[in-house]
Amino acid sequence: MARYLVKIIGLGAQAMGRAFVKTVRQEIEAFHEAARLHQALNRFADDEAADEKVKGMTLTEARLILNIKDLSDQGKINANYQHLFEANEKPSGGTFYLQSKVFRAKERIDQEL
């Protein structure tokens, strides 16, 4: 009876040990994948940061501010710029900060074109 109990405990410990090792390996693999993803995102962020240092604002940020999807549509760019610039004037209840952001976004898109 004791012999069978020892065998059962031994087999259970082996199974638990294998499961633990498999789990640790999966965690290590997930950690390495996350590290690779983090490095790739940092490279992209570094490129955008360098772009921002040179030009003051990223093209992505400028497109988001002016709500522009296609840079070739100059009419939509100008229409959105005029609307946002006038909506953020001081007499209209806007702020100089937002107005300057709109102006810088238009300026950045014009640099790209």
Describe the structure.
There is one protein chain. 82% of the residues lie in helices and 0% in strands. By secondary structure, the chain is mostly helical.
The averaged pLDDT comes out at 84
Shape: rod-shaped
Could you give a short account of the major beta sheet?
Answer: none
| Total number of helices | 4
Topology pattern, helix = H, strand = E: HHHH
Distance between the first and last residues' Cα: 85 Å
Strand content: under 5%
Poorly predicted parts:
none
Task: Outline the secondary-structure elements.
Blueprint: H1 2-55, H2 59-66, H3 74-87, H4 96-112
What is this structure, in a nutshell?
The chain is mainly alpha-helical and 113 residues long. The chain has helices at 2-55, 59-66, 74-87, 96-112. The mean pLDDT is 84.
